[in-house]
Every structure is written in structure tokens, then in C-alpha cells.
Design a protein that fits this description.
rRNA processing; 54% helix; two-stranded antiparallel sheet; 904 residues; Nop14; two-stranded antiparallel ribbon; ribosome biogenesis; 6 strands; 27 helices; mainly alpha
């Protein structure tokens, strides 16, 4: 091909191919030769086009070219295939895209169907009218309305059976000529129309289609007639009931009629007569009926239910209810027993209801006396209205009011953890029993001295510090403190004011401080703490980040106190190393409020580390320290109940507590089995902690009073026995929790050795039973753990084969390059997998091309919309600019006129 530009290359290629401009000569070629020339010319042009544009053909270079082998897909035409794909999508996908979301072409043209102003009855009437009009138009060609038509002197209406018309089947027939046999017409032509006799038919033959349809039509008519008859009977019964109801209504609402001895007693204002009561039984029966009718007037009517209110609406209603109750309480304190005028009108509106036009006069209480039948049978007492008013006032005050203050003092010191463990036992101020307490307090209000507070206020300010909270609840009974907190939360709901969120966050810190305050010695109040936990839990769930900060702040302070106590001396009696009753209560509260099973928690993780530091670093100096450590171990048991994390400090302290309390044959630390630390064993401070066998022979164990042991330095042998049993039970619970660990054998073998060498034979039978049962359980668990343990093995590897370079030949096939599996099913499965993979790739490729095509279509539409919008805006701007230019020209002309007039 010649060099140069594409134009010169094209000219040279056309000249070489012999294609020149068509010259219109005088001579014309034949049509056949013309078609052949066109085909050849098109082929040459296509060849020239391909040579000029080499990018239209894509050739895949073969890695191993074998002569004579033909492989599909080595040459391709991407431009043509792309154009063909676009054209195919324009014919199929583009039409589907344009018709997407289009409704069907069926148009409902029924009369009145698309007219929303017409009711269903009007639509049916309009359709019936149109149908009758259409039928009337067709009656023009109806022959029945004209005079009777005849044929050969006979009426056509009597010739429906065509019995006497037609040709005979045989010319020699005895019947009249020109007549078809009746049986032939009846059986062959029209199926008989029921003219054939059933006796002439074969009972076993199959019925024809005409006979079956005749039976179906007959049954349908029969059912229709039966339904019509039932409908008429129901209508008649309904009509009879309506008439009876009218007579019953006249009987019920008739004026007074005296039951005399005459035959008929007239009713005033009516011509109807009542029958004579012949006996006392009839009179009693009629009076019972009148009494029941009279009682129906006082039955409670159904009320419509309100919609489900939002949280903000409920909070606002609760706040308004509390404020209203507080206003009423203040009015009662000032001696103003009456309610507000608007409330009186509201209550009067509830008690009375005006008679409406649609009333049946059986659902209201008449102001005048009942004068009809049954008078005096269901009268209401005159004091019922006052009682209902009192009950309504009590129901309004039920949610807001609380028990009157009863100065009974604090709880008993000896109540112990038993009161603290019964969570929620004192939270009865919000329950249904409050109503009885309120009524009792009202009845006994006159007997109380004037200096005692009678009612709990309904509104409180949100405290900003613990001191303000103490001022609020200073003179309030412990059972009413949860009610106070609930009312504070209700009055300061976050949806009522934006600053309430910060107030409730601060209330969380106040409750934490108050829990520390009420659980401090000498009079801890665990019942009040349990009743405050639900409110603290709810606030922590509402504001978790701020509440976590408050708890972590307290934990940091406790950690600082621990460091200060250890720095002063872990064995000094005056150093505060072990946590007190308030700190232990806070740690127990943290386990209740927050989730203790998380891998890492902003509150539980610091609390867990702090308790481990207490158990690992603090030294035992007295029975109080042992009590505090066992309490921490029980809290750890609560924390790790779900996650089952190993806490070796808790197990070590429990077994050390057993060594301190129970008599044993161990002399010093070196004689103890295992490797757990026991720095205080047989020390001077721990020797008095051992149980005296002589004093404890007859003592049996009880539940230890932990609050008293934590606050009082005086203890008895009974307390030692109780703590020993508590330590054994903790070891039992920890063994049940850690029995699935791999290191359970190393953890509890020393514990079993210590338990077997305890000298408990001289103690009570109950203590011996506890120790022996724990020994049996640990022996059994250790046995199972040893059986389940498997020795460590090296990781099993697949042997590495020796590499071979011998080529693999298949004897049954000459095409050794083709993959063939001797298993036919596996080979077919691999083929299917390969086909599925190829089809999946092809489907993904086509879907991407479809998405690209649709995106181009959407882009074109958007470009057209933008162009049209731009044209409209340019046209509008040009119009506005022209108007603005004209306006400015007019303004300039006006200015010129003004200047001219001024010069003149």
C-alpha cells in the first residue's frame, strides 16, 4: 500500500482495485450483471476498509502455533461486535427500559367507575339505565311486539319444535310427503329438547352433553328459587321483629299505668291497651323484667380508646399531673378544700350529660324521678355522687401521692446483707398497694400531731449536689425516697427542656454518692440501696458515657486510697487497705448496673483490676480483712459467672481463708502444697483467727452477717465457723466454673491436698459434712480432668513427595495435553463446573455492558434536559434583559424631560 496520508492511501487502493466513479453511458447493462458488480464492489470496499483500519481486527497470538490446527476465537472484530451489541440492546433493552413502570393498555370504561363523586348505588343505577337504553334500541327489530306472524296460516311461535317441517328420509315413507320424522328431529337435529321419553332410553347409556347441561340448568334454577324463598322468609321475620320492637318500645316508655282489677288498663296518650295481670306470678315476672331494663341504664358504656402517645407526650402528661397534684396538696395545706373552678366544671361535665338527639333514653340518669314501669327498682343513692367524687380525687392522687411520713428511724443494724440481697423489697411506693396506704393515712390524719408532715410533695427541684439531695430527702422516709427520685426524673424529662439532660446526668452522680452515703457505717440501709438501683440503672442506660465517667472517678479514688494505705504499711493496723462496706456496696452495684461479661469494658475492667489488687496486695490482719476478701471473692463470682474468666486471686484468697480459720497439720508456709502465695500463714496477726476446737464443738454454721463483721471488731467463734463455710462454698462454686479449663488440675490439686489434711474431726457434724462433700466433688472433677487431658503432639504434616521429572502419558488417548479424569462422573462434574464458570463470567460481562448502555441512555436524557433548560433560561433572561433595557431607556427619557423642563 502506498505511503502518505489516509486519503492518498484510499485513492491508490481504489485505483488498484479498479473502482472508479460511475459513468452514466448510453448503454445499459443487464440487471443481473449490475447486481453482481455491486456485490463485488462491496466486497472490495470492505477489504480496503479493513486494510486501512487495522484496529478493527484483533488477533490473539498463539503461544504454541501448530500447523493445520484451527482454533476459534483467535481473530475478532471488537468494533463490529460492539456496534452489533449496541444495536441489539436498542431493540430489546432500550424498549424494556422505556416501558418500565407503564400500566396496561386496558381502560376501564364502565359507567361512573372513574367518577369519585358518584356513590356505588348511583353507579349501579347509571349502568342499569344505560343497559335499558341499549336494550330499547335493539327492540326496533324485535318481532314479538308486532302482530303475530304466520306461515301457511300457522303461527311461527308454535313452530319452535319444527315437528311438521322438513323432508322425509325415505320417499316410500308412509307419512305425509315433505315431513321429517319426529324422532329424527328430536334426537339427531336438536338433541331432543326434552321431548324424548325416558322410558325409550337405555338407563345404562352415557348422557349426552345436552342432557347434562339441562340438568345443570335445572339445578341452578332450583337453588336460585330456594335462595329467593329463604330471603323472603328472612324479610318477613325481620319485618315482624320490627313491628314487635315498636310495641315493646311503647310498653317500656309508657306513662304510669295502675294495675287494677279491670280487664284492660289504658295507657295515657295512647290507644293501645295492656292485658290484665291475672296473678301475682305475672306481676312478679313483669317487675323482674322492668328491673333488668332499669339496670341496663346504669351499665358502663364503652369508651373510644386514644391513640398510642409518644414518649414526649407521656412525659408532659406525667409532669402536668404531678404539678396539678402539688397545687391541690398546697390548697389542702392552706385549708382550701375546694377545687378550682375549671376542675369543678370538668367534674360536673363528667357526672352529667345532656340529652342528645340520637339518644334512646336508656343510657343516662334522669334528674327527675322515674315514673314509668319498674320505678324504684334500680334507684341510685343520693350519696353515690359524693362517693364517686371522692374516688375520682383519690384516683387522681394515686400516681403522685405517697405514704405519710412515719418517723420510725433508720433500719436495724443487725439486718445485714439479708436485707440488701432482697432487691426491690422496699420499692412499694409506686405499686398498687399505695392506694390503701393513702386512704389509711387520710383517715388517721386527724390523730397525728400538727408538727408531723402529712403528705409527700409532688414536685421537687433537681439536685445539683449530694448535699441538696440530702436536704430534699432529709425528713422523708426511706420507702418514699424512690418515689422522690421518680418524680424528679418525671419533672425533668429530657424532652421537656434542653437543660434537663444535664440535670439528669448530674442526678446519676448524686445517686452514686447517695449509695455510698447510705451504705456507710454505722447504720447501712441496703433496702434503700436496692430500691434506688432501678433508677440508677435507667439513668446509666440513658447516659452511658457520663455515668461511666462518674463510676470510674470513684474507682480511681479507691485506687488512690489503696496506694496510700500500702505505702503506710500493709500490716499496720491503722492503714486502710481493704475496702469498707460502702466501697464493697459500690463494687456490687457496678456489677448490677453494667455488663460484666464484655471482653473490655470502661467500668468493669477497672473494677476487676482494683479488686484483683485488693486480693493480691493487701495483707490479712484481722477477721474483718478476711470478711472483706471473701466479699470481694463473691463479687468476682458474680462478675465472671457468664464469661468464666480465670481469677486466681479469688481462689488463692479463699483457700488462704480456709488455712487461717480451720485447724490443720501444716506448721509453716514451706509445708503447704502447691505454689500459691500465702504470706500471712501462721503470722502473729493471723494466729487468733484460728477456730478454737474446744469452744466450737457444738456450733453449727449459719449465714454470716457480713455488715456486722465489716463494721464491728468484736467477733465470736460462731463467726469463724460461718466464714469457714463461706470460703468452702466459694471454692465449690469456683471449681464448678473452672472445671473446663486446661489448667484445672494444677489449680485445684493443692486445694484438695489442703482439704484432706484439715483437722475437722472434732468440729460439728455439719462442718465435717461440708468439707467431706467438697473433697468428694474435687476428687471426681480432677479425675474427669485427667481423663480428658491429652498429651501434646507435634503438628502432623503431609509427607513431602520426592520431585519427579518423568512426563505423564495416557495410554487411552493420543491427545495427552487434554485433561482427562479416569472417573467419568468426576470428569463430567469438572466439565459442568467449567461451563458454569464460563457462563457466570459471560453473564457478568453482559450485565456490565447493559448497565453501561443504560447509563449512556440516562446521560443522553439528562444532557437533553439540561440543554432544554438552558435554552428556556436563556430565553427568559433575554426577555428580562430586553425589558430591563427598555425600562432604562424610558428612565433616561424621563430624566431628559425633567432637565429640559427645568431649563425652561
Amino acid at each position: 500500500m502506498a505511503k502518505g496520508s489516509q486519503l492518498s492511501q484510499l485513492k491508490s487502493a481504489l485505483s488498484q482495485a479498479g473502482i472508479k466513479n460511475p459513468q452514466h453511458g448510453k448503454k445499459r447493462k443487464r440487471s443481473g450483471s449490475i447486481d453482481q458488480d455491486k456485490i463485488k464492489k462491496a466486497a472490495k470496499l470492505q477489504e480496503i476498509h479493513q486494510k486501512l483500519n487495522p484496529f478493527d481486527v484483533k488477533v490473539t497470538k498463539l503461544k504454541h502455533d501448530v500447523g493445520g490446527r484451527k482454533i476459534k476465537g483467535t481473530k475478532g472484530q471488537p468494533a463490529q461486535s460492539k456496534q452489533a451489541g449496541i444495536q441489539r440492546r436498542e431493540k430489546t433493552l432500550l424498549k424494556e427500559f422505556q416501558e418500565k413502570g407503564r400500566a396496561g393498555g386496558i381502560v376501564d370504561r364502565r359507567f361512573g367507575e372513574n367518577d369519585p363523586s358518584m356513590s356505588l348505588d348511583e353507579r349501579m343505577l347509571e349502568r342499569f339505565t344505560k343497559e335499558r337504553q341499549r336494550a330499547a334500541k335493539g327492540n326496533v327489530f324485535n318481532l314479538e311486539d308486532e302482530e303475530e306472524l304466520t306461515h301457511y296460516g300457522q303461527s311461527l311461535s308454535k313452530l319452535d319444535d319444527f315437528d311438521n317441517f322438513g323432508l322425509p328420509m325415505d320417499e316410500d315413507d308412509d307419512e305425509d310427503p315433505g315431513q321429517i320424522d319426529r324422532d329424527i328431529v328430536g334426537r339427531e337435529h336438536f338433541g331432543g329438547f326434552g321431548d324424548t321419553n325416558e322410558e325409550d332410553r337405555d338407563p345404562d347409556r352415557k348422557k349426552s352433553k345436552a342432557e347434562v347441561m339441562a340438568e345443570v340448568i335445572a339445578k341452578s334454577k332450583e337453588h336460585k328459587a330456594r335462595r329467593q324463598l329463604e330471603k323472603e322468609q328472612e324479610e318477613s321475620i325481620r319485618h315482624q321483629l320490627d313491628q314487635d320492637f315498636d310495641s315493646l318500645r311503647n310498653l317500656l316508655f309508657a306513662p304510669d299505668a295502675q294495675l287494677t282489677g279491670s280487664n284492660m288498663v289504658p295507657l295515657g296518650g295512647s290507644d293501645s291497651l295492656l292485658p290484665k295481670y291475672t296473678s301475682n306470678a305475672d306481676i312478679d315476672e313483669q317487675m323482674d323484667y322492668d328491673r333488668q331494663v332499669r339496670e341496663l341504664a346504669f351499665d358502663q358504656r364503652a369508651k373510644p380508646k386514644d391513640r398510642t402517645k409518644t414518649e414526649e407526650e407521656l412525659a408532659l402528661e406525667e409532669k402536668e399531673a404531678l404539678e396539678k397534684a402539688e397545687r391541690q396538696r398546697r390548697r389542702r395545706m392552706l385549708g382550701e378544700d375546694g377545687e378550682d373552678e375549671d376542675e369543678d366544671e370538668k367534674n360536673n361535665g363528667k357526672r352529667k350529660r345532656e340529652r342528645g338527639g340520637d339518644d334512646l333514653e336508656d343510657d343516662f340518669v334522669q334528674e327527675e324521678a322515674w315514673g314509668g314501669l319498674g320505678a324504684g327498682l334500680g334507684e341510685v343513692d343520693a350519696n353515690d355522687g359524693a362517693n364517686e367524687e371522692d374516688e375520682s380525687e383519690e384516683e387522681e392522687d394515686q400516681d403522685g401521692s405517697a405514704d405519710d411520713y412515719d418517723d420510725t428511724g433508720d433500719e436495724d443494724e443487725d439486718s445485714g446483707v439479708e436485707n440488701g440481697e432482697s432487691s426491690g423489697s422496699g420499692t412499694g411506693s409506686d405499686s398498687g398497694g399505695e392506694f390503701d396506704e393513702i386512704t389509711t393515712s387520710r383517715k388517721s390524719a386527724k390523730l397525728k400531731p400538727p408538727g408531723v408532715q402529712e403528705e409527700l410533695p409532688f414536685t421537687f427541684t433537681c439536685p445539683e449536689s449530694h448535699e441538696e439531695f440530702l436536704e430534699i430527702v432529709g425528713e422523708i422516709d426511706d420507702t418514699d425516697v424512690p418515689t422522690v427520685v421518680q418524680r424528679i426524673r418525671t419533672l425533668h424529662h429530657p424532652s421537656l427542656a434542653p437543660e434537663n439532660k444535664l440535670k439528669l446526668q448530674n442526678l446519676t452522680s448524686v445517686l452514686v454518692d447517695h449509695i455510698l452515703y447510705i451504705t456507710s457505717p454505722p447504720t447501712p440501709r441496703f433496702t434503700l440501696m436496692s430500691s434506688l438501683l432501678p433508677h440508677l440503672f435507667a439513668l446509666s442506660r440513658s447516659y452511658p458515657i457520663e455515668s461511666a465517667g462518674f463510676f470510674v472517678e470513684k474507682l480511681s479514688l479507691m485506687h488512690k486510697n489503696l496506694n496510700r494505705g500500702i505505702s503506710q504499711g500493709a500490716l499496720e493496723p491503722g492503714s486502710r487497705t481493704w475496702p469498707g462496706l460502702a466501697e464493697l456496696s459500690l463494687l456490687r452495684t457496678i456489677g448490677v448496673v453494667w455488663s460484666s461479661s464484655d471482653m473490655s469494658h470502661p467500668v468493669i475492667s477497672p473494677a476487676r483490676l482494683l479488686m484483683s489488687a485488693y486480693l493480691g496486695l493487701c495483707r490479712v490482719r484481722s477477721l474483718t480483712d478476711v470478711t472483706s476478701g471473701l466479699f470481694l471473692s463473691s463479687i468476682f463470682l458474680q462478675y465472671e459467672e457468664l464469661s468464666k474468666r480465670l481469677v486466681p486471686e479469688a481462689v488463692n484468697f479463699s483457700i488462704n481463708a480456709v488455712l487461717h480459720l480451720a485447724p490443720s497439720s501444716f506448721k509453716n508456709v514451706a509445708s503447704l502444697p502447691g505454689s500459691f502465695p500465702s504470706p500471712d500463714f501462721r503470722s502473729d496477726l493471723c494466729l487468733p483467727l484460728a477456730i478454737d476446737i474446744k469452744k466450737s464443738k457444738k456450733l453449727n454454721f449459719h449465714t454470716p452477717n457480713l455488715p456486722r463483721l465489716l463494721t464491728d471488731d468484736r467477733y465470736t467463734e460462731q463467726d469463724k465457723i460461718d466464714l469457714l463455710i463461706l470460703a468452702l462454698r466459694l471454692l465449690d462454686r469456683f471449681s464448678e466454673m473452672y472445671k473446663s479449663l486446661d489448667g484445672f488440675i494444677e489449680l485445684y490439686e493443692p486445694v484438695l491436698d489442703i482439704l484432706t489434711k484439715l483437722d475437722i474431726t472434732q468440729l460439728s457434724k455439719g462442718v465435717g459434712t461440708q468439707v467431706s462433700s467438697l473433697q468428694d466433688k474435687l476428687t471426681r472433677l480432677l479425675k474427669f480432668a485427667r481423663q480428658a487431658r491429652r498429651p501434646l503432639l507435634l503438628q502432623a504434616h503431609k509427607p513431602i513427595p520426592i520431585p519427579t521429572y518423568i512426563p505423564k502419558f495416557e495410554t487411552h488417548s493420543s491427545s495427552y495435553l487434554r485433561h482427562r479424569d479416569p472417573d467419568h462422573e468426576r470428569n463430567e462434574a469438572s466439565k459442568l463446573r467449567y461451563q458454569y464458570k464460563q457462563e457466570k463470567k459471560g453473564a457478568i460481562r453482559e450485565l456490565r455492558k447493559d448497565a453501561k448502555f443504560l447509563a449512556s441512555v440516562e446521560h443522553k436524557k439528562q444532557v437533553e434536559k439540561d440543554r432544554a433548560y438552558k435554552n428556556r433560561m436563556n430565553k427568559a433572561f433575554s426577555t428580562l434583559e430586553g425589558e430591563r433595557a427598555e425600562q432604562k431607556a424610558m428612565d433616561r427619557e424621563k430624566e431628559k424631560e425633567k432637565r429640559r423642563s427645568g431649563r425652561k
